[in-house]
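User: I'm writing a tutorial on reading structure tokens. Could you give me a worked example: one chain, its sequence, then its tokens, then a sentence or two explaining what the tokens reveal?
Assistant: Sure. Here is the example chain.
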Amino acid sequence: MNWLTRLFHVADKVQPVSVTDANFHAEVLQSELPVLVDFWSPGCGPCGQLAPIVVDLATEFEGRLKVVEVNVVDAQKIARRYGVMATPTVLYFKKGGMVDKVVGFRGSLYHREIVENSLIDMPTASASASAPATTSA
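And here are its predicted structure tokens:
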């Protein structure tokens, strides 16, 4: 059971995958899906505020976005590699490359816009407008 589940009792929601130095490459850089990486630290108040937002994003975009969490105390090598100097820090990856970095707490809408605009392919209005119309006779 990860720290989010213990803290918020959110068993009915999709939980982030816990990532360490040992499995970061496989879980993030080799992921078929775009990845949101939440770097957090124990005792970090803003990290606790961000946690339910991260869980909500994992739940909302399930199957289209992979959400992982990294405890910087347990994954110092990967935190250093990506210049994580403060928590929370959220990194966004697509096809193995980092596309955005957010340091500090930001609200749900801020993160949702990054996911929708930079990471996942959202259906467009023009796609549905170009579908053939059906008529009743």
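What the tokens reveal: DSSP finds six helices and five strands in the chain. The mean pLDDT is 87.
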